[in-house]
Amino acid sequence: CAVAGAALELLGDPGLLAGVRRKHELVMTGLRQINQRFGLFRELRGKGLLLGCELTEPWRGRSRDFVKAALEQGLLVLVAGPDVIRLAPSLIIPDELIEEGLRRFERAIARLSTNSVPAGEELTHAR
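^ that's the sequence the OP posted. Answer follows.
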């Protein structure tokens, strides 16, 4: 019970909640930028850091392909149905790891959609 109480206390911390809201915006901004480049998502939705990316018509039914491509880049994303990719990073993930995750996700999408990233082409989230 002590662990559960400590967890509830932490989750009720206004600083943690403000950080989650800020991180939500950071991830959503990155996903919007990626979507501007590739046009793969019909809708981006979520609450806090539990996010869903619904695929557009040409990609519907292929969420598992995105999971596999992300895994090849060292990134774990989840299937939330045949048309939705779920992202669920830790509530205390550092901003640097969010940026790294977005770079890896973009690289996975680029490779899946074109089978390669053309030489010299800059990724939206390149360093």
